Amino acid sequence: MHSTAAVPRTFPRFEITPLDRALSGDLQHKIDQKTKPQGALGRLETLALQLGLIQRSLSPKLVNPYVLVCAGDHGAAKAGVSAFPQEVTWQMVENFLAGGAAINVLARQAGMTLVVADAGVAHDFGRRDGLVDAKVMRSGIHADGAGGTANYLEGPAMSDAECAAAMHHGATLVGEFAAAGCNVLGFGEMGIGNTASASLLTHCITGLPLADCVGRGTGLDDAGLERKRALLAQALAIWPERPEAGRPVDNDALRILARFGGFEIAMLAGAMLAAAEAQMTLLIDGFIVTSALLIAAQVSPEILDYCVYSHCSNEAGHRLQLDWLKGRPLLDLGLRLGEGTGAALALPLLNAACAFMNEMASFESAGVSEKAG
Prior knowledge:
Layout: H1 24-32, H2 43-55, E1 66-72, H3 88-98, H4 102-110, E2 113-120, E3 131-133, H5 160-179, E4 184-190, H6 194-206, H7 210-213, H8 222-237, H9 252-260, H10 263-277, E5 281-284, H11 287-299, E6 307-309, H12 318-325, H13 341-359, H14 363-366
Parallel strand pairs: 1-2, 1-4, 2-3, 4-5, 5-6
Helix pairs in contact: 1-2, 2-13, 4-13, 5-10, 6-9, 6-11, 9-11, 10-11, 11-12
């Protein structure tokens, strides 16, 4: 795939169509007429209904599924918000490219096309097969491999133009996926320090207490967790003009994203909005990916109709995010890896929902008597 580096620097606009629920009755009738008691397939039935509404079809099917993993570095990482050094970001990208990471294994198993994008990693990868160059360079930073956001402990992580560029990159890539026939897209990320960024975004969008939104990330001990909480409280304190937490209006969500987000989170938000605009099914992964969805849902609330929440992470704050979004996760496996692994694990359940809709006999076709009365 080509580089998406040259894009306009204004925030992209999206027109997401609310789901047309006119087909709900027919879909539910088809579900109920399968050879089973009503509701006996549980969440598979609600999944089938949602997929049918998204695709406007009584026979939904998944075509050419992709998982997009966006990678970026964070200027605050070196201040002690993570247990791992910043270099792990680019090293893990190399692992993705070599096919050795968890998401490589699980995407292959699920039959998903994995796309890895450098949204702003502090490393020069050069031109590499399998890596999309979507790097956003900070103003004044020479493109010699230096990258990543600025330190939000000192000021904004991104300028509006940089944040907009990352969102454009995500939207452009999704256009390529759509052209390839993709109608279901999973989202993943890689970036040392990005659970801290996600915690700040979650607090600012939802108004949930900051301490409740902050977890151990890649494995902080108790002292490290307290240091992380103190640093994030400090980051909030130096932004006196910040919107009131939990009450963002107008473009406040994009201001919050530029202040505390990462290039990979901004790219994911743009990709999510473009995917919903293209009427794809969005497979939402864990804590960081859901923080991008919190931003995207403020920009266009209609996006939530297209979202399937793949799992509930063990990272502190993810269940709070899901509760705030009124999202029900399909799986609860104690995952806390990211990379889109939850999305890859959930895809077979979506395939199963389509399969029973399209292949399971009805009472009439099988000659089976329905429930009496």
